[in-house]
Amino acid sequence: MKILLIGNNSWDDTNSLGNTLTNFFSGWDGNTLSYLYSRKTPPNNGLCSHYFSIPEIEIIKNYFMPERIGYEYFYYESNKMHYGKKAIRFEKSVVKIKKIFNLGIINLMIDWAWLSKKWYNKKYINFVKNENPDIVFSFATNFVRLYMILNSIKWINNAKIVLFFADDVTVKTKKGLFHNIHWKLGQKYLQKCIDLSSCYYGITPTLCTEYQQKFKKPFKLLRKGCDLSLTQVKDSVGDLIRIVYAGNLYYGRDESLIRLIHTIDEINHYDKKVFALEIYSNSIVPDMLRNCITKSSSTEIYGVKPYSEIMKILAESDLVLHIESFKEEAIKYTRLSFSTKITDCMQSGSCLLAIGPGNVASMEEINQIPGAISITDIDDLQQTLEDVAKNPSQLIQRANAIQKHALENFSVKMVRESLQSDFQNLIGKDKDTLKERTY
Q1: Is the pTM of this model over 0.85?
Q2: Does the domain at residues 241-409 carry the CATH identifier 3.30.360.10?
Q3: CA atoms of 29 and 50, how far apart (whole Å)
Q4: How far apart are CA 45 and CA 42, in angstroms?
Q5: Closest CA to 438 of 221, 233, 174, 281
Q6: How would DSSP label each residue in 339-387?
């Protein structure tokens, strides 16, 4: 079976997209993977070897020389990338500026670049023809871009298309004329992507239910699996209870972290030092959070680490942290999402501490995990941490309960076998829909 995976960023195991793809598609015997993406950054994974890059900035730059757009390469050639280090650094700077200033007109320019079809050249056509995928699997996002790519593949070889919805993509979270035009355009092409596809996955039961009603298509639950083959639950808790957060700082999570830092500092001030918080993130750190960390004697922040190292750090911690924002605007965006970091937390063998509003899907799911410590009212934060400090041995019992739940409900082996079976059914039976099933 030939599978073409589509993402926006590089397949990098240090980010959530990359390690989720690796989680889904590792251990598939007899299958060939390729990856199509829209950045210059080379990959960082041990699974896929064949790539095609269509950087959006190159579409605009080479609008009148479209034959220059796009680059096909194999993993062992990635150190000889067509794009030099200077060009990669420039692109990263543009992406960073885009995140900071959040200009809607830039999103519209990117939409226009894809609609121009200047990227649809001989290099791209030959890549799709030669790869000749049976299945195209894509994260459901950036819908103008996604539809243009998916529709072109349909014209070239009529592969079966599978969409994976990891977030609520129907909610409008940004204000302004250009953002509004971009959102409306995205919703139009979202429906086109739905119509073009044969199979649909959602990351939470709530998302699957709502989208099934909205789009009149069968959505199935798909979540990152836990590989528990090497996991060992800790048999002791340190004198200093170590809390680790590994994730992004977007959608108001930074404000929840600030509240947590203040609470930890207050507990440590009135007692001996009880808690230490470590933050690992590749996000841009907001000034208020950075100032809070600088003033705190209990908190340290680190940059991005390889996925394998992050998992080791989580396994060595006493509490692994999942956090959401209590702000209404952030809740609108995250209410249907289930962070892949939650799966990593369950896999770690440590106790899971979750802080966030009870009406978002991630917290609803965590509330169903035996042993997890869930704080859905921020005013309960200090009392909960004080209770942990008084009885730290409870973290061992809680971690064991979490492991049992993960083994029964989040086995990576089960996730991969079910996904592979679905793909084989799509190809073998040539049907457009599959029975609804949850893992």
Answers
A1: yes
A2: no
A3: 17
A4: 10
A5: 221
A6: -HHHHHHHHTTSEEEEES-TTSHHHHHHTTSTT-EEE-SGGGHHHHHHH
Two domains, one topology: 2-225+413-429 and 241-409: yes
Is the distance from CB of 325 to CB of 294 less than 8 angstroms? no
Q: 50-53 and 71-74 as β-strands: parallel, antiparallel, unpaired? A: antiparallel
Token pair listed for 88? 């990669």
Q: Hey, what amino acid is at 268?
A: N
Q: Across the 439 residues of the chain, what is the mean pLDDT of every consecutive 10-residue run?
A: 95 88 92 94 90 94 95 72 68 68 82 96 97 96 97 94 95 86 96 97 94 96 90 87 94 95 92 91 92 96 89 95 94 87 92 96 94 96 96 95 93 94 85 42
Residue that is written with structure tokens 């979270």 in the block: 173
Q: Give, as one character, the DSSP assignment of residue 44.
A: B
**Bridge pairing between strands 299-302 and 275-280:** parallel
Identify the CATH homologous superfamily for domain 2-225+413-429: Glycogen Phosphorylase B; (3.40.50.2000)
Residues in the chain: 439
